[in-house]
Amino acid sequence: MTKVNKVIRSLEVIAITILIICFIILAYCVYVSITAEQQYASEYKAEITSVDESTNDENNISDLIEKVNNSVVGISKIKNKGSTIFLREGTQSLGLGTGFIVAKNGYIVTNEHVSGSKNSTCYVTLEDGRDYEANVVWADAEMDMSVIKINADNLPYLNLGDSDKIKIAEPVYAIGNPIGYEFQRTVTSGIISGLDRTIKIEDDDKNYYMEDLIQTDATINPGNSGGPLIDKEGNVLGINSIKITTAEGIGFAIPINIIKPIVEKLKNNGEFNAATLGIFAYDKGVIPYINQELNKNIKLNNGIYVAEVIRNSPAEKAGIQKGDVLIGIDGLTIDKMSELRIYIYEKEIGDEVTIKYIRNNREYEKTITLAKKLN
Length: 375
Description:
- The protein is of the alpha+beta class.
- It folds into 4 domains: about 1-70; about 70-150, Trypsin-like serine proteases (Thrombin, subunit H), CATH 2.40.10.10; about 165-255, Beta Barrel (Thrombin, subunit H), CATH 2.40.10.10; about 275-370, Pdz3 Domain (Roll).
- The chain is built from 7 helices and 20 strands.
- The protein has a 6-stranded antiparallel beta barrel. A 6-stranded antiparallel barrel has the order 7-8-9-12-11-10.
């Protein structure tokens, strides 16, 4: 091979090599471009999907609230004389509040301070504008809960959830009549801020404590009292009851599980006769208040502290004394007053229960026959 041919051959190899390199570079650029477009399309699709899901969630909540509103009612202690909140009597004398239907045949849950005491009368306005006179069939002032009954049927009603399964930061919605009928079924949203809260109530000359409350930052105004606190599925978790007026964004609801046994007995039997042990007892959350007010040094790590034994009650007849600490009933551990209430509400008058309690660091057991609770 001549020298010229060798040069030509070398140039051909170089040219081919350059072409191969250019092709590789071009192919890589195309690959990068296609990958970038695919990634962008994927991110864009994900972003659109996220927006769509968020929009769907909002639409679902709106539809849910609209459905729940059909079961929310307005309650007044006197007959509604008009639709305006600027009535001469004003909202305070009207006693405006909220309730929610829990059975198709007209049972409604609300607060005792909204409905009044047992066997009293209040007035109910349904979502469609119909007005009814209601009878208070059960009420407890210290727990601020009541059940009222209207003469109606085929009513939409709410599902009662499980307040024992509530979690901190869970989203919730409070529904009620915050000022009057012109602003009825106002919805506020928030989260569960705390559980098992205890607050002191000063009512005229009487002081008492509400225990095991749900704390939420969903706005609860005076007319929201008695309305439902619901989760994102529309299940009732609590009964809106109290707002601390000295602090913003702190509201409370009574756990729905406390009243569920009462509602079930009313629905099934048409009546509820409360059985009782005949004691007033407090959770450990109340003990610091008692120690401060009475200059005591009560220590309570578990169980509930017996603050009072009612005269001639089943508890007194069985020998239960003030200062005893109840730690169990029928083999179940008791650490909250609400747990004891729920268990007793499920019992009948005349049923026997076995109480486990501590006195002077010694453990005892007594079998007690439940009696009818006097109103």
